[in-house]
């Protein structure tokens, strides 16, 4: 169940056999190669040299390792960029983001599509039937380095094309975007510009469409690669390695192209990327916050329709965050076990050996730079391999009892009109997830409209636009449902629904919203009743025919509920969130725990796992049949019991 990312092109050929031997010695089964190798595969147009990669794959295969081949499109070489400068992406200020690192392409460049299809076909043809290759990875981390959206001429051309297909006439476009406002009506699709470099706020419906368009471009580009790979590699699976906290495109749509999802887990790097408080950043600096990696494991298991890998696992300090601490001893092992507990099929470390050169020379590997000597992470990976071997195959995971409806478009919409500076969808979804896990609950991520049967509790942190499909499953579910702030507050074209928010959810929840207030940091509105805590950041004014389960200070409804559907009219602080979720979990018949803030638990089939992210022991309050660790869970340790 372990893998590693390997770059044979970085090391002398004389080293490859020993590397392969030591991979096997460590307990590794899968090796990903190739994803940045374009300049070594095609030095100049048509001048190919695949023999080195043939030999590298053969060496790995001969050692009994299974290879995952990456397509090299994240790094178009210089000769190609010089030949077609229109491949390059543009930032929102209209400046080119040129050659010199990676991901320097726009998803909308026609010539880039042709060039991508060409190289993918050549690689897929050459390796599609190779017995050592079991799977494929398309490109590398779509959207990483802020590369989903591009603002150049090629993008404008493709956006206009997309709009024409969607709206057919400018009358329909003008109607959809409410172009009458500020005289923004168009007589031709060629008059439409990209929503940037305007004097003040551009039209929100246009921005939402541009975001949808940019997201569709990623999914379509990926599909193009996947189809070529499937044609030439019929026996292999295809994945893409998603990044953490990239929400500019709808990952579920890319997931539709794939056999399984994978993602790149850098738990400590993400502590700096996520808007944690400084206090939290310091507390979790050397371990990561206990929900950062699990949030993504559960998300990508959903994106992969039940199947996911960690394609890149942080093996020690990384190089790219503002600060890059050394993980506490035991963390590489803990993260690996945690991914497995959440259902990962394979955990693959990035990278085999620390590179003593170029951009990532400060990034750890399983080996120290330039030597055949294990790093701390390498030794911990080896320990997991031994533990796994002793344990035998892990059982299949089951459906969780809680579903979290996760919606990328709500992130876009809330970024377009935040209304309060700190209303950030990703953060809201993360905090709801964190709170559920503090109650000891396992969570599945589902997209809006996905089947909800079998779930006891469904939480919808924020679903701004509720379409027909989403409404139908929500209407029909037997689960207890909780909707969060701003749900149902916009229609497809970014309008406030005629019946007022929560729009289509009004009949289900018996609520109607007349005003919203965003609250500056420090301002709180206390909530009391069956739940208690406070509203922070955001508070809505509701009228309701449902039962009022919690009230704001002035007596207005804060939490409403009828038989199954509940509406929370604010951004809840930790106490309000926890008491609300406890109330509803219990209503749904779920037993909740009060897990300490540094502990998390998770079930996989007959096994329960516990993880200690803190600095104090935790005595596990159940007596189980321990297969790993024991009743007293030490800091940075893992326990597994039946
Ligand atoms: C990932 C990327 C890898 C490597 C790694 C370093 O985002 O896919 O190629 O750059 O980060 O942490």
Automatic annotation (TrEMBL):
InterPro entries the UniProt entry points to: Beta_galactosidase_C, Beta_galactosidase_Trimer, Class_I_gatase-like, GH, Glyco_hydro_42, Glyco_hydro_42_N, Glyco_hydro_b
Catalytic activity as recorded in UniProt: Hydrolysis of terminal non-reducing beta-D-galactose residues in beta-D-galactosides
Domain Beta-galactosidase C-terminal: 600-642
Transcription regulation keyword on record: no
Every Glycoside hydrolase family 42 N-terminal domain range: 5-390
PANTHER family recorded: BETA-GALACTOSIDASE GANA, BETA-GALACTOSIDASE YESZ
The protein's name: Beta-galactosidase
Source species: Rhizobium oryziradicis
Taxonomic classification: Bacteria, Pseudomonadati, Pseudomonadota, Alphaproteobacteria, Hyphomicrobiales
């Amino acid at each position: 169940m372990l893998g590693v990312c390997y770059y044979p092109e970085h090391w002398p050929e004389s080293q490859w056999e020993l590397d392969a031997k030591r991979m096997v010695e460590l307990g590794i089964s899968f090796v990903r190669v190739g994803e940045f190798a374009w300049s070594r595969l095609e030095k100049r147009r048509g001048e190919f040299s695949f023999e080195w990669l043939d030999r590298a794959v053969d060496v790995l295969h001969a050692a009994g390792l299974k290879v995952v081949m990456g397509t090299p499109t994240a790094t178009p070489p210089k000769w190609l960029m010089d030949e077609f400068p229109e491949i390059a992406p543009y930032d929102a200020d209209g400046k080119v983001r040129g050659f010199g690192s990676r991901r320097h392409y726009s998803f909308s460049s026609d010539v880039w599509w042709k060039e991508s299809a060409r190289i993918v076909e050549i690689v897929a043809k050459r390796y599609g039937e190779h017995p050592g290759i079991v799977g494929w990875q398309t490109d590398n981390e779509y959207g990483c380095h802020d590369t989903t959206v591009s603002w150049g001429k090629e993008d404008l051309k493709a956006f206009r094309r997309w709009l024409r297909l969607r709206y057919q006439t400018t009358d329909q476009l003008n109607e959809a975007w409410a172009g009458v406002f500020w005289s923004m009506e168009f007589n031709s699709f060629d008059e439409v510009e990209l929503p940037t470099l305007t004097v003040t706020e551009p039209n929100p419906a246009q921005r939402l469409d541009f975001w949808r368009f940019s997201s569709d471009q990623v999914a379509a580009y990926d599909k193009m690669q996947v189809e070529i790979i499937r044609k030439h590699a019929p026996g292999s699976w295809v994945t893409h390695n998603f990044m953490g906290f990239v929400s500019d495109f709808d990952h579920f749509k890319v997931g539709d192209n794939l056999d399984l999802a994978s993602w790149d887990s850098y738990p400590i790097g993400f502590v700096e990327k996520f808007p944690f408080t400084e206090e939290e950043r310091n507390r979790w600096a050397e371990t990561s916050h206990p929900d950062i990696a699990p949030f993504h494991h559960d998300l990508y298991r959903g994106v992969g329709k039940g199947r996911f890998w960690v394609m890149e696992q942080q093996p020690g300090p990384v190089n790219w965050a503002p600060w890059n601490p050394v993980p506490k001893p035991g963390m590489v092992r803990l993260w690996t076990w945690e991914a497995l507990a959440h259902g990962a099929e394979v955990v693959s470390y990035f990278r085999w050996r620390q590179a003593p050169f170029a951009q990532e020379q400060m990034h750890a590997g399983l080996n120290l730079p330039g030597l055949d000597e294990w790093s701390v992470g390498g030794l911990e990976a080896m320990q997991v391999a031994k533990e796994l071997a002793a344990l035998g195959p892990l059982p299949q995971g089951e459906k969780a009892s809680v579903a979290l409806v996760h919606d990328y478009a709500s992130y876009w919409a809330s970024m377009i009109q935040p209304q309060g500076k700190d209303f950030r969808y990703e953060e809201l979804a993360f905090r709801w997830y964190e709170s559920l896990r503090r109650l000891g609950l396992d969570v599945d991520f589902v997209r809006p409209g996905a089947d909800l049967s079998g779930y006891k509790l469904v939480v919808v942190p924020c679903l701004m636009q509720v379409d027909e499909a989403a409404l139908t499953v929500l209407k029909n579910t037997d689960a207890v449902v909780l909707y969060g702030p701003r749900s149902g507050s916009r229609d497809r074209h970014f309008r406030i629904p005629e019946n007022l928010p929560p729009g289509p959810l009004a009949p289900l929840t018996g609520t109607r919203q007349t005003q919203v207030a965003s609250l500056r940091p420090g301002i709180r509105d206390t909530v009391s009743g069956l739940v208690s805590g406070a509203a922070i950041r955001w508070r809505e004014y509701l009228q309701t025919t449902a039962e009022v389960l919690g009230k704001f200070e002035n007596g207005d409804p804060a939490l409403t509920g009828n038989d199954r559907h509940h509406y929370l009219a604010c951004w809840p602080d930790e106490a309000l969130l926890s008491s609300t979720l406890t109330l509803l979990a219990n209503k749904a018949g779920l037993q909740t725990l009060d897990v300490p803030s540094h502990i998390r638990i998770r079930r996989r089939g007959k096994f329960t796992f516990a993880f200690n992210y803190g600095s104090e022991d935790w005595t596990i309050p159940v007596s189980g049949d321990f297969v790993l660790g024991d009743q007293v869970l030490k800091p940075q340790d893992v326990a597994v019991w039946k």
